[in-house]
Amino acid sequence: MDNALLNRTVEFLLLPPGNLLLLLLLIFIWKKQKMVICTLLAMGLLQVIIFSLPATANWLIAGLEQQYPPQKDIWIQDELPEAIVVLGAGRNRNAPEYGGESTSLTGIERLRYAALLHRKTGLPILLSGGEPLPNVRSEAELMRDVLVNEFKVPVRWLEKDSHTTWQNAELSNKILSAEGIQSAWLVTQAWHMPRSMMVFKNQNQNSDENKGITYHAASVSFGSIIPWSDLYMKWVPQPTALTRSMVALHEWVGLLWYKLRQQQPH
Fold first, then answer.
1. Model-level pTM?
2. Are residues 32 and 83 in the same domain?
3. Same domain as 204, residue 250
4. Most buried residue among 154, 191, 205, 253 by CB atoms closer than 10 A?
5. Does residue 100 sit in the same domain as residue 205?
6. How many domains does the chain have?
7. For the ranges 12-21, 87-96, 136-145, which has the lowest average pLDDT?
8. What is the mean pLDDT of residues 109-117?
9. What was the pLDDT predicted at 20?
10. Are residues 19 and 134 in the same domain?
11. Same domain, yes or no, for 248 and 126?
């Protein structure tokens, strides 16, 4: 949990709008340098405007989604995988209508697709997601509640200790290998799939124990197009676009960090 919190803090300070705090700190340090102050203020304003443009957000998200294009009826194939892995996607901490906490809307999208894949194939499901804070239920348990109680789909395995996508891969691999599973669908958002597939494939390269587990992308939510982004509106700053840009930047930075991490000796 501490490493996950540290990662989020560093990311917050590197990306907008959090990095505006660093700009303000630099302005305070160089408060007598008018040219420096004006430059930093202009940089801060410009980055917010650029990332608030639907054109920018659509471009950043599309670059991720296109790496694993949509697949229609992926259960219609000669050889199916042996399991379905669904990655955790945070939580809704204030859902009194569901008894307190529930999985996030992003998680619901993943679970809906996992339920469809299970109904079409009967494959067992593994849910992966840990506890971000002490004395709370894991993301995996919250997702299980939705699958079992609402979608009426059974869950075979729970991985309840991961806090990052990297840990999702490490710990899910251990469970699947212990069960003799050799292939699985990986269910997550299309914009999250490149980073997810990178780390899950990396597990096979660095562990003899897990060698042979093959993962297949089962992407959901191809939503690169932002509402009100047609014609000239794609050049009009919008808060929705800023949010989508931050999601995409999180993934691009994560891809870079994971590539650097893979090059480190194990």
1. 0.86
2. no
3. no
4. 191
5. yes
6. 2
7. 12-21
8. 97
9. 75
10. no
11. no
The domain containing residue 81 runs over which residues? 71-220
- pLDDT tens string 131-183: 877 778 999 999 999 999 999 999 999 999 999 999 999 999 999 999 999 99
With a CB cutoff of 8 Å and minimum separation 6, the contacts of 78 are none
Q: How many CA atoms lie within 13 A of 18 on its CB side?
A: 11
Q: Write the pLDDT tens digit of every residue in 191-205.
A: 999 999 999 998 876
Q: Are residues 55 and 79 in the same domain?
A: no
Tokens of 217: 């992308």
CA dihedral of residues 170, 174, 180, 182 (deg, nearest 10):
0
Same domain? For 38 and 97 the reply is no
* Within a domain: 183: yes
Instruction: Mark whether 120 and 208 lie in a shared domain.
Output: yes
